[in-house]
Amino acid sequence: MGSGKGNVTIKDISLKCGVSVATVSKALNHYGDIAPETAELIRKTAREMHYIPNTAARQLKTNTSHNIGVLFVDEMNSGLTHEYFSGILDAARAEAEGLGYDITFIGKNMGGRPMTYLEHCQYRKVDGVLIANVDFSDPGVVELVRSGLPVITIDYAFDSTSCVMSDNMEGCYALTSLLIEKGHRKIAFIHGERTSVTNKRLVGFNRALRDHGIEPDDRYIVQGRFHDPKKSREATRYLMELPDPPTVIMYPDDFSYIGGMTELEKMGLSVPQDVSTAGYDGIPISQFLRPKLTTYHQDAEQIGKVSVRKLVETIENKKTCIPEEISVSGYVLEGTSVASLQAAP
Amino acid sequence: MGSGKGNVTIKDISLKCGVSVATVSKALNHYGDIAPETAELIRKTAREMHYIPNTAARQLKTNTSHNIGVLFVDEMNSGLTHEYFSGILDAARAEAEGLGYDITFIGKNMGGRPMTYLEHCQYRKVDGVLIANVDFSDPGVVELVRSGLPVITIDYAFDSTSCVMSDNMEGCYALTSLLIEKGHRKIAFIHGERTSVTNKRLVGFNRALRDHGIEPDDRYIVQGRFHDPKKSREATRYLMELPDPPTVIMYPDDFSYIGGMTELEKMGLSVPQDVSTAGYDGIPISQFLRPKLTTYHQDAEQIGKVSVRKLVETIENKKTCIPEEISVSGYVLEGTSVASLQAAP
DNA sequence: CTTTGTTGCGAAAACGATTTCGAAAGAATG
DNA sequence: CATTCTTTCGAAATCGTTTTCGCAACAAAG
After folding, report:
1. Nearest residue on chain B to A7, judged by CA atoms?
2. pLDDT > 70: what percent of chain A?
């Protein structure tokens, strides 16, 4: 049934109902100047005939696609295979679908020929774009953000657009505080690249130390990389070979911790007896590791959802919608990777 | 620069070049009946004016979108957050982009109102669709497969369409054989739901046993679920509490193994001293676990790539392209989770 | 000088929707 | 009855592209 090649169009409906195509279009779009009975008849027959609007035609005329672009980093396996981001993407997809939007990936080339992100967006006529996990200093990204196309950035703030942030400062503050309350004083922090996320975490970290009267120790702050187990192995070894090693190491993310964990093991150190550890992200697997990882869970689902909501809001009320920074809070997931040091000051 | 709202169209080019829009279109599409110099001039000015074709208009006229749909399961966190599938998706995205196709997610509702997968595909006018990790007996999926739209399924074979399969039979054969060569005889197999993937693995498993003269033992074959650590914890406990427990347990996937691992630990059993283990998938994290997991690496990247290639081939040569089953082979990743039992028969 | 064949190009009709503007018919008003 | 509003609808233009078909112009052939 319904195997006919040509899909049913607005014209077919108009013929069947004995009205013009204009009337059909207006009825379907709930215009005010159509008699209620006529409109109902039209909508009913449209349903019966399994009418599906032709997006291309609509898009051509209205210049809107009901399609939002998603710009995640491609290269390396840090884009879709990063659980935090794939969680965001998955939630975003679901939310967009509910709001009547589809999602299209935006890349930097198309059919061999290179293309800027903006051009790709124009090519697909996306109504807005969600940007996450990219190098925000990339000229292509900046061009896109400046283009006037509705944009939401995730975990990075431009002042011209709205952004959704995980509560990195509060999260890192809470996590650090927990460690301190457990009696730790020599707290190492392997952080990620110097992005705004890292900066916020450092602020939270330092604030927690200060609020508890602890002097920050530069030797314990070392730069690693997000989602890079190798880099964090190196950093872990460096830290544990210090003359006065830390009693706990905070990692930039759970995945990086896995690298550190193997290095500690290789050094014959066990967690949490010899050294405590904490992650960040709270990805599912972290709770299946032994010892169960103490980590800060970022609410990826909520972040994806909120991002799309805000983006659609921006798209649909472009003039009245002012840029806003939305923070989504997570919570500490307490595992067994942090030992309680009873030696009080 | 280029901040004008209206994009440059084929008409602008025709004006600038003093030719008709028809000529421009033909030049841009490399038709034969345009003088080489004229064509070159047109293409040059198009480039200079930063012309971007309007996909909507083209799509409306040609009824092709250069857009492929992707149908991954949504609900639960087994879709995008499953590393095997997100690896496939990422590779597919990259390959599609190179071939001039964009990717759009296909869902089962649109803007609140429910919609079949097929309707969604028609709505977005995707040229073809990639299906993976879904319930292949779902009527909506079957409808889509039967619709005549070019379709590629991953890890499941319909006879009307092409499919790309990981070499489950060979993979499971190789993995099982390795265990046997290590001296294991009492080999347990926690397998996934009864899908064609599971069936193929069971064939490989049984064949390996038979080829080595080992009698299969039904008690050691238990049904778990893919990507479900809880289920595999139960199965693990069940197996290890048997009067005559196995010496090695094979899991349906690496993620499930993590569940089993925690259960073994809770039972006071250590790997591989007390029992050996093997996973499946070879996701990155498996190689950072201690002990490093022995597993079969499925080449997700290659699978994604090949799937898109075949799909595009099907789209572009719809008549001449015959359904085909493509197998992508992986390899054993040998870790330290399997003990060598020197007790030969 | 006619006929036939090439070659290069353009006019115009689609594709399927949206939207403006006005027309017709009936209702309300004077 | 004439006039003015409302209400309900339709004709037609439009979005940007592709594609068919035919028209010139000019060369080759008779």
Report:
1. B122
2. 95
For A28-37, B251-260, B302-311, B312-321, which range has the lowest pLDDT when averaged over its residues? Answer: B312-321
Burial class (CB in 10 A: 0-12, 13-18, 19+), B269: middle
**CB A258 to CB B111 under 8 A?**
no
Q: Which tokens sit at B285? A: 């994290």
* Strand intervals (E) in B73-127: 102-105, 109-110, 113-114
Q: Is B269 on the interface with A (CB under 8 A)?
A: no
Neighbours of A225 (CB within 10 A): 18
What Å distances lie between residue B71 and A11, B135, B140, CA to CA? 31, 11, 11
B116-120, B165-169, B317-321: lowest mean pLDDT where?
B317-321
Taking only residues 98 to 157 of chain A, the set having a beta carbon closer than 8 angstroms to any beta carbon of chain B reads 98-105, 107, 109-112, 119, 122-125, 148
Contacts of residue A96, defined as CB under 8 A and 6 or more positions apart, other chains included, come to A68, A102, A103, A308, A312
- Average per-residue pLDDT in chain A? 91
Q: Which of residues 29-68 of A touch B (CB under 8 A)?
A: 50, 52-57, 59-60, 65, 67
Report the nearest residue to nucleotide D7, CA vs C1'.
A33
Q: Is A297 left (phi over 0), alpha (psi -120 to 50) or beta?
A: beta
For chain A, domain boundaries: 10-52, 62-166+300-329, 168-298
| Most confident option among A21-30, A112-121, B259-268, B334-343 | A21-30
Q: Are B31 and B24 in contact (CB under 8 A)?
A: no
Estimate in Å the CA A59 to C1' D18 gap, whole number.
17
- CB count in 10 Å sphere of residue B49: 15
Do the Cβ atoms of B117 and B144 come closer than 8 Å? yes
Q: Confidence class of residue A131 from pLDDT cuts 50, 70 and 90?
A: very high
Q: Which nucleotides of C are covered by protein (CB under 7 A)?
A: 7-12, 14-20, 22
What's this model's pTM, rounded to 2 decimal places?
0.89
Same fold, B62-166+300-329 and B168-298: yes
Chain B interface disruption, residue of A70, A80, A315, most B CBs within 10 A: A80
B284 touches chain A (CB under 8 A): yes
| CATH code, B168-298 | 3.40.50.2300
Among the listed residues A172, A124, A300, the one whose alpha carbon sits nearest the alpha carbon of residue B56:
A124
Q: Is A317 on the interface with B (CB under 8 A)?
A: no
Give the residue whose CA sits closest to C15 at C1': B61
**Gap between the Cα atoms of B82 and B129, Å rounded:** 20
Indicate yes or no: strand D within 7 A of the C-beta of B110.
no
Q: How long is chain B? A: 345
* Contact yes or no for B103 and A105 at CB 8 A: yes
Task: Name the CATH topology of B62-166+300-329.
Answer: Rossmann fold (3.40.50)
**Rounded to an integer, what is the distance from CA A257 to the centroid of its chain?**
20
Instruction: Extract the tokens encoding A242.
Output: 């210090």
Query: What's the CA gap between B227 and B237, in Å, rounded?
Result: 17
Which residue is closest to B94 within chain A, CA to CA? Answer: A74
Q: How far apart are the first and last CA of chain A?
A: 79
